[in-house]
């Protein structure tokens, strides 16, 4: 018993010395700026590297005055600077790319964002092949497969280290439920599976504290199309940035906690998943246990009710197309 606790103490002090460099690509954007601020406030982050095609040094100068211990460096555009920003990073968050305007779907962003993500993924594969890559840029259902294909082409693909950030869907789901039930959202753990766009987002209320909510079509729709509410309210000035920054910072924090030895860290995320591979769906978002090597275990979807079965069917059809589109893009446009 005594020996055990001594070992634990030693293990903890060793992990407390961990150096955790985190890089943000797209750091001067609507998400990138508040995300960088939240990462600066995270004591687990020891070094923050901010890269963008415009404005990153300014954001870095600003954030660097926040009086926490981590160092912050902004990088001007260019391949050598991008490589330097990535070198030694343990976590790389990618919110680079254009956001939606009213009337657009996430898939409408594909033509612009696919090549941005492909090129950034190449830089990651070359300069930070062992980092955890957290893809925020939309359409996530396609940009994650794009990253996977790029990493495969470079011979450094590790499916345990590639994550599509879908945290915002569970953040929204718990908040929307708490509004209906007049509860604390911290106590509303809603599982959301599938992808990150419209009907591919599948909330599983039957597994929550309020199983009857699975027949609340209005709530299900709100979770699936929550992003549209923000796009509409911003009237052409972009999509969710602040709630997304919070969600991205939470996902990064969870990965760092797991990397620093904490057990049982579980987050929903869009990963290379065994769950529906037999149906030709290579990537799927579900709860995932994180560990020092990234994905430790993909948790099963669990029991769903008849309403949710129908939602899953609709999800599969769209998700498969989105994934294929990402793969095809890299095959046909390998870039330089
Ligand atoms: N996964 C999710 O849950 C969510 C994803 N998003 C997505 O995140 C992305 C970014 O959104 P915002 O920050 O609002 O957009 P934004 O336009 O405000 O910022 C994007 C930033 O990316 C930079 N950028 C563009 N190309 C780049 C490149 N090649 N290298 C480095 N930086 C580059 C731009 O200069 C800009 O500063 C969008 O695609 C949006 O749809 C938004 C909300 C939620
Ligand atoms: O709706 C968008 O375009 C941005 C996004 O992914 C979200 O807010 O969930």
UniProtKB/TrEMBL annotation:
The family database entries (Gene3D superfamilies) matched by this protein are listed as: Lactate dehydrogenase/glycoside hydrolase, family 4, C-terminal, NAD(P)-binding Rossmann-like Domain
| Binding-site list for NAD(+) | 26-32, 52, 113, 136-138, 244
Q: Which CDD domains match?
A: MDH_glyoxysomal_mitochondrial
For this protein, the Enzyme Commission number is: 1.1.1.37
Q: What class of enzyme is it?
A: oxidoreductase
Question: Which residues carry out catalysis?
Answer: 196 (proton acceptor)
User: Which Pfam families does this one have?
Assistant: Ldh_1_C, Ldh_1_N
Keywords for the protein's UniProt record, in alphabetical order: NAD, Oxidoreductase, Tricarboxylic acid cycle
Q: Which InterPro entries match?
A: L-lactate/malate_DH (IPR001557), Lactate/malate_DH_C (IPR022383), Lactate/malate_DH_N (IPR001236), Lactate_DH/Glyco_Ohase_4_C (IPR015955), Malate_DH_AS (IPR001252), Malate_DH_type1 (IPR010097), NAD(P)-bd_dom_sf (IPR036291)
Q: Which GO terms describe its cellular component?
A: mitochondrion
Which GO MF terms are attached to this record? L-malate dehydrogenase (NAD+) activity
Q: Which reaction does it catalyse?
A: (S)-malate + NAD(+) = oxaloacetate + NADH + H(+)
Provide one Gene Ontology biological process annotation.
tricarboxylic acid cycle
- Indicate the family of this protein: Belongs to the LDH/MDH superfamily. MDH type 1 family.
**What is this protein called in UniProt?**
Malate dehydrogenase
Q: Which organism is it from?
A: Thermothelomyces thermophilus (strain ATCC 42464 / BCRC 31852 / DSM 1799)
């Amino acid at each position: 018993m005594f020996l055990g606790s001594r070992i634990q103490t030693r293990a903890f002090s060793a992990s407390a010395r961990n150096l955790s460099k985190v890089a943000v690509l797209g750091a001067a954007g609507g998400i990138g700026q508040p995300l960088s601020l939240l990462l600066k406030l995270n004591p687990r982050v020891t070094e923050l590297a901010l890269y963008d095609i415009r404005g990153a040094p300014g954001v870095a100068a600003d954030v660097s005055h926040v009086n926490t211990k981590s160092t912050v460096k902004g990088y001007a555009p260019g391949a050598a600077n991008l490589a330097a920003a990535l070198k030694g990073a343990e976590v790389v968050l990618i919110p680079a790319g254009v956001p939606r305007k009213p009337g657009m779907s996430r898939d409408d962003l594909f033509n612009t964002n696919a090549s941005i993500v492909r090129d950034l993924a190449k830089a990651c594969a070359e300069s930070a092949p062992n980092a955890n890559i957290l893809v925020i840029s939309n359409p996530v259902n396609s940009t994650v497969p794009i990253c996977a294909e790029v990493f495969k082409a470079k011979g450094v693909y590790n499916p345990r280290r590639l994550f599509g950030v879908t945290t915002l869907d569970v953040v929204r789901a718990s908040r929307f439920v708490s509004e209906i039930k007049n509860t604390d959202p911290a106590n509303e753990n809603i599982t959301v599976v599938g992808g990150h766009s419209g009907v591919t987002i599948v909330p599983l209320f039957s597994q929550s504290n309020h199983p009857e909510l699975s027949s609340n079509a209005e709530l299900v729709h709100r979770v699936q199309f929550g992003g549209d509410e923000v796009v509409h309210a911003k009237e052409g000035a972009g999509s969710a940035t602040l709630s997304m920054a919070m969600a991205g910072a939470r996902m990064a924090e969870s990965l760092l906690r797991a990397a620093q030895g904490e057990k049982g860290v579980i987050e929903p995320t869009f990963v290379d998943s065994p769950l529906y591979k037999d149906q030709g769906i290579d990537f799927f978002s579900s709860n995932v246990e994180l560990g020092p090597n990234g994905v430790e275990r993909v948790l099963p979807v669990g029991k769903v009710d008849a309403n949710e079965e129908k939602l899953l069917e609709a999800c599969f059809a769209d998700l498969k197309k989105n994934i294929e589109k990402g793969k095809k893009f890299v095959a046909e446009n390998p870039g330089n």
